[in-house]
Specification:
15 helices, Endonuclease III, domain 1, about 45% helix, two-stranded antiparallel sheet, 3 domains, alpha+beta, DNA-binding, 7 strands, about 325 residues
Length: about 325
DNA sequence: GTCCAGGATTCAG
DNA sequence: CTGAATCATGGA
């Protein structure tokens, strides 16, 4: 593989400082799946048709692009919420009264929801079911390399829906997707004839967006919530995955609660930036840094019978 | 070899 | 409606 010709490092201007540890969590913590580190602390990634390098310098973040490939500071600023809109949203979270959330925020100060492309978020989370983040990254990388358009330097864009729909069985097989291959192909077949699907989905209310997303093959409640949060900027979306189940059970005492009920709690308790709270809790839980004020010795903790959710409608 | 993964789907009750 | 079995693959 030919070596990538990088431009010089330049300062990446952000409204709020991002520590190196938070940058790592943001780029490699399961929001996006297209960032890698070759050398320590230097992140290389692709989003949309942008290829970029990012690192935490001594005086804030720095970025670089690939010579001959369009990379702009503006694209990175948008991707990383440089204007600081999410800083204000953090202030709407109940961290003053919620010590668990407060500790989770302190564990990754400045953590933000990446403003990803809907296409990228949907592909990534179609691959995510029952998989670890490392393996999701490998699947997505294989999809790009096998089917996506070359962007230079050996890096590729993600395949379009048309490219995915046209992929052969053996091509998908080579991406180690397992049963998720059918999810990707099915969704690709639905969306390949809708070039403006993302704009159409973006125009929906969040409730309708989640519903529309769940109509796609391989998209259930959790994947829909992730795509709404990471791809459509719906900060109120509250994905409930295995880590959030653990976090809300251990730290809040909600043992044995069904995911749908935990999602209901999350939205009500955390409010319009529930998804941001979720990401802080997710990161803290995964790092084993979650406060557990209600935790009991393991032999005492048993799943309680789930209380029945209120029937609606 | 066994276990499990940022779950979704299908099926039985 | 809820709960359980099943799904394909690879890393730990």
């Amino acid at each position: 593989m030919k070596a990538v010709a990088w431009t010089a490092w330049r300062p990446l201007r952000l409204a709020d400082p991002v520590p190196a540890q938070t940058l790592r969590e943001q780029l490699d913590g399961g929001q996006a799946f297209r960032w890698n580190t070759a050398e320590d602390g230097v992140w290389t990634g692709v989003f949309g048709r942008t290829v970029a390098g990012v690192r935490a310098g001594s005086n804030g973040l720095e970025w670089r692009g690939v010579v001959g490939v369009s990379t702009t500071e503006a694209a990175l600023q948008s991707y990383l919420d440089a204007a600081g809109g999410q800083a204000g949203l953090v202030e709407t979270l109940p961290w003053r009264s919620d010590a668990v959330l407060r500790a989770a925020i302190a564990a990754n100060p400045g953590l933000r929801i990446l403003r990803q492309d809907p296409h990228e978020a949907l592909i990534g989370f179609l691959c995510s079911s029952n998989k670890r983040i490392l393996q999701i990254r490998q699947m997505v990388a294989q999809l790009a390399t096998t089917l996506g358009e070359p962007l230079g330097g050996g890096l590729h864009a993600l395949p379009t829906w048309a490219q995915l729909a046209a992929a052969t069985d053996s091509q998908l097989k080579a991406c180690a997707l397992g049963y998720r291959a059918a999810f990707l192909r099915g969704t690709a077949q639905r969306l390949q004839s809708r070039p403006h699907w993302a704009e159409e989905f973006q125009a929906l209310t969040t409730a309708d967006l989640l519903s529309e997303l769940q109509g796609l093959p391989g998209v259930g409640p959790k994947v829909a919530a992730c795509v709404a949060l990471f791809g459509f900027g719906r900060l109120e979306s509250f994905p409930v995955d295995t880590w959030v189940v653990q976090a809300l059970a251990g730290a809040y005492g909600f043992h044995g609660w069904a995911p749908a009920r935990l999602e209901e709690f999350g939205r009500a308790h955390f409010g319009p930036a529930a998804g941001l709270a979720q990401q802080y809790l997710f990161a803290a839980a995964r790092a084993g840094r979650l406060l557990q004020p209600f935790a009991l010795p393991a032999e005492v903790v048993k799943p309680r019978p789930k209380s029945r959710g209120r029937a609606r409608r």
